[in-house]
């Protein structure tokens, strides 16, 4: 958010202050960090290769861009086994920045999820002034499906 500040200065040293203040000066800021992306939702968890869980994460752009276009989004997650939020990237493990340089992209696939682990995700919008506030997902637990309890063979031809 743009702001305007007015100020005056006076010279001072160990012998005292100058006799006059400077003329009034004005400083305007041009923008701010973006607000948080909204409606962060993690869905569509599915199992690959019987050991790896993947999911989709979607969000809507922030309502306030900070006076500068959103350049990209960054995603971080925490887990019950490690409550610190670490940046993630699609198709790899934690601790790497995830950046989308196309601001129309508001979804991605999350991989390397451990079955039974609880995750919380944060999505950040980044503009010229820096990283904005976090849009937060609800806690998500990935569970493997239960084994079938009974199988019936209907046709053997």
Task: Write up this protein.
Strands 7, 8, 10, 11 and 12 form a five-stranded antiparallel β-sheet that branches. Strands 5-6-9 form a three-stranded antiparallel β-sheet, with no helix packed on it. Helix content is 0%, strand content 46%. With 157 residues, it is mostly beta strands. Strand 10 and strand 11 form a beta hairpin. The termini are far apart.
Hey, roughly how much beta strand do the residues contain?
over 45%
Shape: elongated
Distance between the termini: 71 Å
Rounded mean pLDDT is 77
Per DSSP E runs of 2 or more residues, the count of β-strands stands at 12
Radius of gyration: 25 Å
Largest sheet: 5 strands, antiparallel
Number of helical stretches of at least 4 residues: 0
Class by alpha and beta content: mainly beta
Q: What are the low-pLDDT stretches, counting only 5+ consecutive residues below 50? A: 90-103
List SSEs in N-to-C order: EEEEEEEEEEEE
Helix content: under 10%
């Amino acid at each position: 958010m743009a702001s305007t500040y007015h100020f005056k200065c006076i010279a001072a040293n160990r012998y005292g202050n100058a006799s006059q203040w400077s003329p009034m000066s004005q400083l305007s800021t041009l923008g701010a960090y973006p607000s948080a992306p909204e409606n962060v939702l993690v869905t569509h968890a599915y199992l690959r290769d019987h050991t790896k869980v993947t999911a989709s994460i979607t969000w809507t752009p922030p309502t306030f861009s900070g006076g500068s276009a959103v350049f990209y989004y960054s995603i971080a997650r925490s887990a019950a086994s490690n409550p610190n939020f670490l940046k993630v990237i699609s198709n790899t493990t934690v601790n790497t920045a995830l950046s989308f340089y196309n601001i129309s992209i508001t979804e991605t696939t999350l991989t390397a999820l451990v079955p039974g682990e609880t995750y919380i995700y944060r999505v950040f919008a980044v503009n010229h002034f820096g990283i904005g506030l976090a849009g937060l997902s609800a806690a998500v637990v990935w569970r493997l499906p239960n084994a079938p309890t009974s199988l019936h063979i209907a046709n053997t031809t």
